[in-house]
Structures are given as C-alpha cells and as structure tokens.
Amino acid sequence: MKYLRLIKYPGAKTSLLHDIFRVVKAAQPSVIVDVFGGSGLVSLNTAGIQVVYNDIDPILVNMFRMIQQHPEQIMRKLKSLLERATIPGGIGHDKKFPGTGMAREAKALRKRGGKGNPGSRDDIPSDPLELALRTLYRFNTSFGGLGNTYATRKEKASASYLRKTVFDLPEMSRRIRSWKIENMDFRDLIKKYDSADSFFYLDPPYPGKQWYNVNFLDVDFRDLATLIHGLKANYLLNVDWDVPLFLEIFGKPSFVKVYENANGRSETATKHYRRKSFYTDVIPGGKNQH
After folding, report:
1. d(Cα 121, Cα 57) in Å, to the nearest integer?
2. Which residue among 30, 51, 126, 211 sits deepest, i.e. has the most Cβ atoms within 10 Å of its Cβ?
3. Domain count, the chain
4. How far lies 75's CA from each of 8, 81, 289, in Å?
C-alpha cells in the first residue's frame, strides 16, 4: 500500500501504520489527535475523519502551516531547488558526483539561515516561508532525516525523497488544508481535545536519542500515563519494547508486534528486527473498553 510521506524523519512509523489504523478503525472516532505529530505520517495518511496535528516543535508546526496557507508557493520553490540541485546542467550539478549538488544547495540554505539543525533556535529565518522551505529541503536531502549530514563525493544524498515529496505535495496539501494544527504541550492538548468522540495517537520521543529539539524526561512519561488513565477518549500509544521504564510506567502492553528493521540489513547491523509495545483501550474487531 502506498503511504504519503512529506519528509524523512527519525523514528517515523511507516511499518506501523497498518496496525495503527487497524486500531483507529475499530475505535470509529470523529477526530484523531496526533499528539506528537512529528513528520505528520499518521495525520497525512488518515482519511475520512477530522485530524488535529500537534507538535511542540514550532519548526515542524511552521512547515505544516505554510503548506496549509501557501501550497502553491511551497511547490514552486521546491521544484526550483530540485531542478538546480539534480538536473544535468543545472546549478550545483556534478556529472561525476551527482549527490554533491544536493550538498551545495543545502549549504546555500544554511548560509541564508544560520548553522545547526533546522529546528535549532539560532537557525530560524525571519520569513516563515523560507523556514518551511529549508525544513522540507534539509530533512528530505539529509542522511537519516536528521537535517545535518549531506552528500559527499563518496556518498550520494538521495534526490528521490525530494522528488516524491514534490510529486505527492498536491494531495498532501489538500489533506493538510482541513487539519487543525496546534503547537502545544501534550498535557494541555490532551485536556483540550479529550472527549468521547476523539482518538489520541501517542508516539512520544524516544528516550536517550538526540533526534529531536524537544526530548522527554521520566516525569513526562509518568505524566502521560496519568493522563491516559483518566481519558474519555480512546487512545493508542506505541513505545519501544525493550525499555524497562515503559513496563514500569505503563504496565503490560495490550499487544507487541515485531517489525523488520530497515536499518538492520547491513553487515554491521546488530538487529534485523525490532519490537514495539502498543497500549490501547480499543479491541480491534470488537467493542472498545469505555
């Protein structure tokens, strides 16, 4: 099945989407609240119900708001950048090392906006459209979706991700147009949208990973568990299976699934699979537990 994807992003849940939407379908909500929205993967692939996209990172929120408000301008500028970086004879193109064009364009974007990751607080252009463009470009052309490592003469940053984004952007912007977009702490967001007609999808930041601009502490996971226990809404939470803290805080998972590790196919990888723990009050194929 084809899924819409706007940016490469660390911790994205493409392989989990089937199980996520299996639970959502069973819950039959009127609105899905993507609490830790990140790349928007779940929100973008939700159809038929109202979407509330939220993230605490204003850089990501700005990206989606600019697509929502100015889709034609975003499309035009992305196409221009893609042409300059990848088409033979275009600006930055190198016949022998085609990936270096991406690196040059990314370097030019950094010079216009500052240093560091797209979300670092000393790296914010005053123009929100420029920031959205740079966020889209840098995540899609950097290794691992981390926004800070690009092509070298020995390695090529893949232009295929950016091409796919440009191709799918009309459909994605159509969906984003109907979203409610929030930039709130998860505690305030859950209190605002908790109702019997809502469904909370919860994919909190990975502990111990420096992938995001805002990371979780133990107290945040404990606050999340407290909020879950008092919900009127249905919910689905997914976390890594092999973290003792999660078992302590959230208890026994509702179910555990094993997925192939896309990063585990190389000779140096130590794990060829990964397990995810899911917590939910919904019984797929049956009635929910409210």
Report:
1. 10
2. 51
3. 2
4. 17, 10, 44
Quick check: is 3 in a domain?
A: no
Q: Report if residue 228 sits inside a domain.
A: yes
Do the Cβ atoms of 102 and 152 come closer than 8 Å?
Answer: no
List the CATH number of the domain containing 230. Answer: 3.40.50.150
- C-alpha distances out from residue 218 to 61, 248, 253, Å: 25, 11, 18
Per-residue confidence of the chain (290 residues) as pLDDT tens digits?
689 999 987 656 788 999 999 999 999 999 999 999 999 999 999 999 999 999 999 999 999 999 999 999 999 999 988 887 655 544 344 343 344 444 454 555 444 443 334 444 445 678 999 999 999 988 888 654 444 444 444 434 457 778 889 999 999 999 999 999 999 999 999 999 999 999 999 999 877 555 556 678 899 999 999 999 999 999 999 999 989 999 999 999 999 999 987 654 444 444 578 899 999 999 765 445 55
CA 9, 48, 16, 14 torsion: positive or negative? negative
Strand partners, 200: 33, 235
CA distance 217 to 221: 7
What is the pTM for the complete model shown? 0.81
Structural domain harbouring 262: 14-56+184-280
Same domain as 157, residue 123:
yes
Instruction: State how far the Cα of 125 lies from the Cα of 137, in Å rounded to an integer.
Output: 14
